[in-house]
Structure formats: structure tokens, C-alpha cells
Specification:
Layout lengths: L3 E2 L2 H7 L9 H4 L8 H6 L1 H8 L1 H4 L11 H5 L14 E3 L4 H6 L19 H18 L8 H26 L17 E2 L3 H22 L24 H16 L8 H20 L23 E12 L11 H4 L8 E3 L1 H4 L13 H9 L14 H6 E3 L2 E2 L13 E2 L4 E3 L2 E3 L16 E3 L13 E10 H16 L6
Antiparallel strand pairs: 1-3, 2-5, 4-12, 6-11, 7-8, 9-10
Helix pairs in contact: 1-8, 8-9, 9-10, 9-11, 10-11, 11-12, 11-17, 12-17
Length: 487
Amino acid sequence: MKKYLLTAILSLAFVGLIGTSCTDYLDKAPESGLTEEEVFTKYANFTKFFYSVYDGKTGYNIRCAYPLYTMFWNQKFGFDGLTDAADYGRIFRVQDWKAGQMGAFVNMVTYDEKRRPILASMFRVIRVCNMALDHVDEIQDAKVEDVEDLRAQAYFIRGYAHFTLMRLWGPMPHITHVIQEDDNWDIPRLSKFDSYKSVALDMDSAFTSFEKAGRIRRDPGPGEDGHLNDPHQKRPNGVAAKALKARALLYAASPQNNQNGVNDWEIAAQASWDAIEIAEEYKYTLLSFDNYTDNYYGSQYTNEQIWAWSAGNGRAYNHADLQGVMSGIFQGKTAWSSGECPTQNMVDKFETKWGDPLYTAEERNVATTLKHYNEQDPYKDRDPRFYKTITYNTSPIVWPSVPTGETKNRANIYYENKNGKIQYATHQSQAYQGVTKTGYYTRKYCGDMSVKNKVKIHMTDPLFRLGELYLNYAEAVNEAYGPSGSV
């Protein structure tokens, strides 16, 4: 791999960004009678410029890095389908990519603003953040804490964009200045380790400013007026900066990126512990099991979500955005795919309720000996999260319109041909004979929505949950100090 970035990818990502003001707002400023000085010295104008990183009208914004937003598109897939955790029912883009044939479709995740231009979006976001950092101290009509909040967000979003680039495209330069038209573009790539370490350093800078701004947490804690209801709830905060630092350092310590052996794991473990301590200090808590899925649907925000993107209300069981999430048989859409279908690999990762692993035949034999697992009834007595995450044939489910009888509150997801006559399953639209490609459907994102339960739900993407901090800590500590260790 070349050490220097003289590729068409990076060059094209900057086309139209340099030599001119980089957003529609600044491009149109002269027509509106605004100079750059007026844009950057007035708080209201500055925020209109900077907040394009969240809501840019051209489609180039940080949302392209959000997993759920990636699934809300007409290509009917998300990046889960590129792993062994899931497949998609439609032999479309994701299956081609999974087979190693990206071809001309790569533009859908690089530059096509009507799809998910992740690559171009991240570079544009980085440029906007660097411009904001260059000019934030020029604001003349804002409180100090508001200026520091903008500075903190710019550091955070810049780091999050670099993290996304590294995760999907490998090492990149960590760009910390506004690249001009006549500047040297021959920018060296960082190592994998240094790429993630640079993200962590951005999070240190972000946290310092969030602390000065009094934005360690945006909303009041549980039990206080305004809890989970800050006007800027969707924006990151100081705890999120600690969380992303911990995540980045965990990636840096992983075998593919590790540079200093066990020391990298020790640093990652300490970062995760720091994040946990401050999250708990600011009263973030895990949801109860009964309310676990509120992190994904049914609520705008929860107290387990350190940073989340609320996708809003109004998505019914047959909403177009859900083509990549739900099967067409739930939606009554014959032209749609089977949506995201978890694989047996994913199902096998759910242990028994006693904690017995079931991923290998040997592990299943041990669990069988203990009478904790029965191959003839494989879904009985599994980790309770399994039933909230996976829809399998005959899984317990609640649909108001399912008739009484054997199938009451059970998901029959197959159809049969009995004596030449199609017998539809209770889960299916009678206009659709398609079935899952793996034997399973995803339940985690939208629960029991279907033609049998025609409801609209609020969907939220939990970009950071407190639960992740505990898992990151456990992994790092185990690698650094062993299963009984601690920071």
C-alpha cells in the first residue's frame, strides 16, 4: 500500500471543496450580502455554517457515518450484511460486495449524494470542522461557554469522521488544517495505530472544551426537569468524547493495529474505565431488561444513550426507509427484499440463560450434557436478549390481529404448499410468498411491526450506549490483565 495519498479518491473528495468556501451557506454568502467576516464573527451565522456537519442539505454530512441512517436507503441493506452476522434477501449491492465485486457501485458510498456518500461526506465534514476551529475565536456576540461548545463539537466531529474513514478505508492522514488550493496534497498516511491514536487526541481536546462549556452532559440528569429533552440533545457531549476515545484506543490495541503489545491494552482499559466513571458520575444508567429495546425504537432518547441520533416518528411498518431493516413479507411489499436476515453464525453467539456458549459443536455438547441445551428445541432457554433481537419460526411475539388458535402470539414465518394450495404464515402478507434467506429475521430495530401490527414507531440510533463502555472495558481488561483483572 502506498505511504502517500496521491490517489484519485482523495483528490476527488476535495474537488469543489478548496479554493472556494466549502458549504452552500458560504458559497451563497456574497449573494446574501454577507462577507466571511460577518459569517464568522456573528454567532447565529457561524452556527448556520458549522451545523451543516449535522444537517447539510446536499447529503454530505456526518449522518452518513451513522449505522441506522446507512440502512435508510433504497439499496436495501446496511453494513451488517458485509459481515458474517447477517445476509440480505435481495441479491443486490451488498451481496455483490460481500463476494468481492464492488465495481461501479462503489460510488454509492463514496460520492453519490442521492445515496450514502460516506467518503466524500467525511472529508467535507473534516474541512468544515477545521474551518470552524480556525475561526471560532472570532465570534463576538456569544458567551464563552457557547464558543467552547462549538470548539468541542468541531474537535469531536472531526475525530468521528476520521474514525469512520479509518474503519472503512484504512489509514488516512489526520487532517488538522484547512487545505488550500496551492497546498501540498502529498500527505503521508498514518499507521493504523496512529490513526486511532489521533482520534483519541481529538477527543482529549473535545473533552477539555466540553468541560469549559459545561456540556459534559447536555440534559439534566434523571428526575430533573428537562431530562433527555435538551434542544441540542442530538449533539455530542463530554461523556461521548470519553466514550469515543475509549473505542478508538480499543481499536488501536486490537491485534490488527497493536503497536506496543500489552501496553496498548492497558491504555485502552484505562480509557474505558475513565469513560465509565464519568458516565456514572453524570448518572447515565443501563435500562432495565423490559425496556431494553427503547434504545432502538419506541422512545426518542433514553438514559443509557450517551450520544444518539433520533430518526424521528412517522415510520410505519411499510415505510420506504425500512427496506433494509424489515422483510417485504412484513410490509406487504412484493418488490422489496427480505431485509436483514441474521445468520446462524449470529444466532449461535447467543448463550443459554445459564451462560453456556453454543458457538461450536463441542460447546453445544457440553451444554447438552448439563441439560441446558436441546438440539431438537434449540431456541429454548437462551439469553433473554435473543428473544428481543431475533425473529425465528414459532418465536413468541404479540400481534393484535393474529387470530386465536395454535398460532396466537407465535411467529410462523414460512408458507407451505398443501395439496396445491398455498397456506400463508401468520407473519406474512398474503401478497408475498418470499421467505428469509437464512431462517431468521431481525427484530431488534423495529420489534413486532408488520402487516399484522400496523403501527408507527420512533426509531433512534444509539451511537454510544453505556452498555458498550462496560463491554469495551471488559475486553481491554481481559487482554491486559486476564479475566480476573481490573484497572
